[in-house]
Predict the structure.
Amino acid sequence: MIELTDKVAIVTGGSRGIGSAISSELAKNGVKVVVNYRSDVDAANHVVEEVKVAGGEAIAVKADVSHSEDVSELIETTLSKFGQIDFLINNAGITKDRTFKKLSREDWDQVINVNLNSVYNTISAALPYLLESESGRIVNISSIIGQTGGFGQTNYSAAKAGLIGYTKSLALELARKQVTVNAVCPGFIETEMVQEMPDKVREQIIASVPVQRLGQAQEIARSVLFLCKDGEYITGQQLNINGGLYM
Ligand code: NDP
């Protein structure tokens, strides 16, 4: 177990849904948090205010993680404010669900860029600082869809499966350097991403989950906290948090 006070985390897509729960959970436990967002500044500021009210420290930083120049600025801002990076939580993600026949090249590229290529951008920019940390942690938020596939989700499942392979390879490369790399694979979690589904599809999903409910963003956030705090000997893993939907 490591002491979290004075650690610094970047949470990409930290302003809404699972990312906002991760930002709050880390900050509640003493971590200084950079809440990254792409467009919704009000949502990001709301998370920062909540953290401050709870006695924690956080800043909101705008950056589109699919653009490497934005990511360089995100890292520079983090360093100028907090001076170090210990935890990198790659959470930003989007879906553009269509059956493959209807999927445009743009739908493909956007989803691969935001969900997968972004991780190249963030990790390559943050790695020198994670290596300086005595307890560097990278947590990549993948998805059950990267493990099982999903109808109408060729782009998303390719990105999320790619993230799992990337996690394992990088874990091998960084294992001797005190940096752990893990993937968290949520099942269906009650965020806007899932709320946008038609009611009938949501009901079918809930009926298919062994525990008979959707997951909560806090349940993912607590697993990220666990990997950061207690995960010294955990690397290259995919942590499934899905109510038993995929084993
Ligand atoms: P939401 O749509 O609720 O939130 C997405 C977050 O990502 C927002 O903060 C958004 O910021 C940010 N974001 C989107 N694109 C970019 C970008 N290019 N650069 C920076 N930030 C960006 O998503 P969820 O909370 O539902 O999902 C979070 C992660 O968990 C995703 O990677 C998703 O694939 C994964 N996941 C979600 C599941 C679910 O059931 N919800 C299940 C399995 C995995 P802004 O609002 O400013 O655009």
